[in-house]
Amino acid sequence: MGTFEEIVENNLKAVSEFKDQGINPYGGKFARTGSVKEYVENYEEGKSVELAGRITAIRDHGKTKFFDLKDETEKIQLYLKKGVYPEDKFEIIKKLSVGDFMGIKGELLKTRTGEITVKVTDFTLLSKAIRPLPEKWHGLKDIEARYRQRYLDLISNDDVKNVFVKRITIIKAIREYLDDLGCMEVETPMMQSVPGGALARPFKTFHNALDADLYLRIAPELFLKRLLVGGFEKIYEINRNFRNEGLSKKHNPEFTMLEIYIAYDDYVGMMELCEKIIKHAAGAIGVEGKLTFNSCEIDIFAEWEKITYMDALKKYAGIDEKCELEDLQKKAKELGIDDVSKKDKFILFNDIFEDKVEPNLIQPTFVLDYPKALCPLAKVSAKNPEITERFELFVAGSEIANAYSELNDPVEQKERFERQVASIDQKEFGEKKVDYDYVNALEYGMPPAGGLGIGIDRLVMLLTSSESIKDVILFPQLRPQA
After folding, report:
1. Which helix (H) or strand (E) holds 275?
2. What pLDDT does residue 137 have?
């Protein structure tokens, strides 16, 4: 086999020799008659085939060679025999190695052991690999190397590739479901002059032609609701958002969200829609019964639970909504929450909720009716002006979705924005501004509406039983190598 350096040297030598012989080691178009999977599933003895793919194994028997050829769909064995081709062409075969791409023509047959094989009558070198692939049966064991060199991870591990095939299928199924409901997919700006729609630190950039600071969006919400003002009634966007925050198993600074807005609806309607979308996506990738997520057994298709925010705090943390600030501060300190003296009652509620409540929300659970102070974009309840018509969906301790009955009162929205900007820590979230243009848009009238956001990355984690968000993002953000 040789060392890494020896393999690279031999492959570079082969490339040079091919070129000297007038053979292009990096060929062009090769017309295939089908995929490997199609021919394996519809096997016909003696059928002529033209296939292309990567060599993943070579078994040398002197005058005969067996290759494994793998395309996007499956692998198949190739049988190459000396004497079938001119001598100089058989010499090319000797210089091929695992990792090379080749196109072949041949006939289907079965070996004595019943393995479907192509008896190769002609072949073309399409791309000569220089570096050796990871060992076939071991693949990449270093977790960071898997994420950093995802292309090798995909070559070595079909299970990894299948997760991303499922991700694509999930997104496609969501689009089809929403399109069938009459929703229209739209696009909104990724660069914004005032980042809004969520409370998070944005990434900042500068536009030379405009001589202006711009921000990568932290959420598309305010632009999507401008479209409700403009007359669109059922819209959605599968969007990329950017938040300049830490990395963890649940967080990547660049992530994918689904946001939906439907005029004349509310958060109850969004609750029903949320459940239907997720169950539809699960069915699209073949989920039928229970699955495992965050080491918990989850029944997606059972009836989903509902609990109010304050009832959840009382049940899992022993916190009553009438609890005095001093008692809350004491409880927060016991939980190891820092700087409790600088936080108001509702921020402490939320800190305790995240610490004590969320880990207990295992089966799909809608947490309803959040305090108004925590929801600057949600409409207040007609039953209680101190709470809002908002829910979040939790599964196995992870937030998967968030929804509101959208606030469409411009005067109240302006007051809430200004109160939020005045109260937040500018060091933590960056320079926060009120989006007065959005307030102006509301003054032209926005219909009552329900809005729903689903984290696509976390949804894929749930439905594919993946432990980390890095496992469902093809190229997750990593610290640059020195």
Report:
1. helix 267-284
2. 40
Cβ atoms within 10 Å of 142's Cβ, excluding its own: 9
Do residues 354 and 392 touch, judged by C-beta distance below 8 A?
A: no
Name, of 327-331, 360-364, 421-425, the range with top average pLDDT: 360-364
Q: In sequence order, what are the beta bridge partners of 366?
A: 306, 393
Are 193 and 214 in contact, with CB atoms under 8 Å apart? yes
SS3 388: strand
Q: How many helices (H) and strands (E) does the chain have?
A: 15, 18
| Alpha carbons 390 and 388: distance in angstroms, whole number | 6
User: How far apart are the C-alpha atoms of 206 and 194, rounded to whole Å?
Assistant: 13
pLDDT at 428: 66
Q: Token match 């395309």: residue?
A: 71
H or E, element range at 164: helix 158-180
Report how far residue 34's alpha carbon sits from residue 52's, in angstroms, rounded to the nearest whole number. Answer: 9
d(C-alpha 53, C-alpha 65), whole Å? 17
User: How would you classify the pairing of strands 449-455 and 254-263?
Assistant: antiparallel
Q: Which residues pair with 387 in a beta bridge?
A: 371
DSSP-derived 3-state class of residue 157: coil
Q: State the Cα–Cα distance between residues 69 and 55, nearest whole angstrom.
A: 5
Residue 412 main-chain phi, psi, to 5 deg: -65, -40
With 90 as the cut, is the pLDDT of residue 266 above it? yes
Rounded Cα distance between 136 and 335, Å, is: 48
Whether the CB-CB separation of 182 and 196 falls below 8 Å is answered with no
* Res. 177: pLDDT tops 60: yes
Average pLDDT of the residues of the chain: 92
Residue 87 has a pLDDT of 83
Q: Which residues contact 29 (CB under 8 A, 6 or more apart)?
A: none
Integer-rounded Cα Rg, in Å, for the chain is: 29
> What pLDDT band is residue 331 in, cutting at 50, 70 and 90?
confident
Residue 354: CB atoms within 10 Å: 14
pLDDT single digits (tens) 202-229: 999 999 999 999 999 999 999 999 999 9
H-helix or E-strand spanning residue 206: strand 204-207
Residue 253 near residue 269, CB atoms below 8 Å: no
Lowest mean pLDDT among 72-76, 193-197, 239-243, 450-454: 193-197
